[in-house]
Design a protein that fits this description.
21 helices; mainly alpha
Length: about 475
């Protein structure tokens, strides 16, 4: 690393203490006391803005501007390829989530927990996008691998990078990389330079002392000339006296010092993520490397897909046949399915509650099972399912059933539960999950026949929709 890059890393490492302390003081510590959280909710927004601004400045100073990010190689030779749009998109989502906590505070119940987790992950994912550390250069099928690298690999592998960046000595221009430090210190040029530095330090110390004496003398004389200046001086003296009081020192040692110490590992983790990403010459695992390393696992022929997918489809057909008969027997046809009065007559509140909750999670697990099966065949099938005509028909039918399951879950939640008995934070969050899963099923079905970035669209849509959900006053709607 050259001298200029070391200097940039050193300043970034020193400045990283500020957002880390803000995160602990105004975000983590207030969460331990709910009353403080209600009064000091600006810390989330302040940290978000400072952190994003710091990452932008850090990357720009190292030559990784938004324009360079979209190219294959940046000015410093890093083999990066990224999406400027995605870094701006996720930065905007993080800022809006933070703004939502200022306007409405953290949402109640499970939405609040999800809001905190999604905000943290959005900040991490923004760093990956901004530093060009996504495996494929943009959001795609390797999203889970990118998430693992952003949460584990990059920050923990660079956990000591801030310490090294601050205390590492920059190599002098006259030094050779292989020369011992003792020989460089014994050279006449080094001795002359050290003497000059000591001389300048002595002159600076004398000048500061002289300025202090002169200013104190002038201050003392001017106190008797103006009453306003004398009042200002007395107020300043009182402020200094309050700072040096026992109460302030007790608050410092009981509150600020422990929070600062707690912010040190947080800042080291964050700097490991950002600095470690910017220091790397390439991503931990690229999409080409992932494809090459998993090539030997593509061993299952098409008939394996026929067996697995065919068995699942048979179970789903049987389920729909039995469920449809039971549904029409209990609720009837036509308006009875959607009339609120008819539903209230036929549906018991406890049955609706238990049925909606139980059915929701079961159907969600079924949809996720289908996606797991699809991912498994993407990794282990010798030919992608959508490239073989027969397997494409099987997988189309499978995700047609997945979409149908999502619609059933939506009907149970929105009609038999939320429509009849009103919204709650848990029901609203469940509705968002169902809508996202339904969108993913539709995008997957389209991807089987059209080459669209289905994974990218699905993830961006989920992030944007949840950001909008955070901006909705759920607590006022439900209570």
């Amino acid at each position: 690393m050259n001298t200029d890059r070391k200097r940039i890393f050193r300043w970034a490492a020193l400045l990283s203490y500020i957002p880390a302390f803000i995160y602990i003081h105004w975000y983590v510590a207030p969460g331990l006391e709910y009353d403080r959280l209600l009064n000091e909710r600006w810390g989330n927004l302040l940290f978000t803005v400072l952190f994003i601004a710091g990452v932008e400045c850090f990357a720009d100073r190292l030559g990784l501007s938004h324009k360079e990010l979209t190219r294959q190689t940046a000015r410093d030779g890093r083999a990066v390829s990224g999406s400027s749009f995605e870094s701006i998109f996720f930065a905007g989502c993080a800022v809006l989530m933070s703004l939502a906590t200022v306007i409405w505070r953290i949402q109640p119940e499970e939405i609040g927990v999800m809001q905190v987790l999604m905000w943290h992950f959005t900040m991490v994912y923004y760093v990956l996008c901004r530093t060009g550390m996504l495996a494929a250069g943009r959001t795609g099928i390797l999203f889970l691998l990118d998430a693992f690298e952003g949460l584990v690999v990059l920050p923990w592998s660079g956990i000591f990078l801030r310490f090294v960046s601050i205390f590492s000595r920059a190599q002098k221009s006259g030094e050779k990389s292989g020369a011992p430090a003792e020989e460089a210190e014994k050279s006449p040029e080094e001795a002359a330079a050290r003497s000059e530095r000591l001389k300048k330090a002595g002159i600076l110390a004398i000048s500061i002392f002289a300025a202090l004496v002169v200013c104190l003398t002038a201050w003392k004389e001017l106190l008797g000339v103006s009453d306003a200046f004398a009042s200002f001086g007395q107020g300043l003296a009182d402020l200094i006296e309050r700072i040096l009081t026992v109460d302030f020192m007790e608050e410092f040692f009981e509150t600020y010092l422990p929070e600062f110490l707690a912010s040190i590992p947080v800042g080291a983790w964050l700097f490991g993520l950002v600095g470690g990403s910017l220091k790397r010459e390439k991503t931990p695992v690229s999409d080409a490397e992932f494809s090459e390393n998993t090539r030997r696992y593509h061993m299952f022929p098409a008939y394996s897909a026929y067996i697995v997918l065919g068995a699942l489809i048979a179970v789903y057909v049987l389920f729909f046949a039995v469920s449809a008969a039971d549904l029409f027997q209990k609720l009837g046809n036509g308006g009875g399915l959607f009339s609120r009065a008819a539903l209230l007559e036929r549906v018991d509140v406890y049955a609706a509650a238990s049925g909606a909750i139980k059915g929701f999670w079961q159907l969600v697990r079924i949809v996720l099972l289908n996606f797991t099966v699809l991912m498994g065949f993407c990794l282990f099938s010798d030919v992608p399912l959508w490239e073989n005509r027969k397997t494409r028909i099987f997988v189309t039918v499978l995700f047609g059933f997945a979409a149908a399951f999502a619609l059933i879950a939506a009907y149970r939640l929105f009609v038999l539960y939320l429509y009849l008995f009103g919204p709650t934070p848990r029901r609203i969050l469940s509705g968002w999950i169902i809508c996202v899963l339904l969108l993913w099923c539709v995008l997957t079905l389209i991807r089987f026949y059209r080459k669209i970035p289905a994974v990218r669209i699905g993830i961006l849509a989920a992030a944007l929709s949840f950001t909008v959900l955070c901006l909705i006053p759920v607590s006022r709607i439900c209570f």
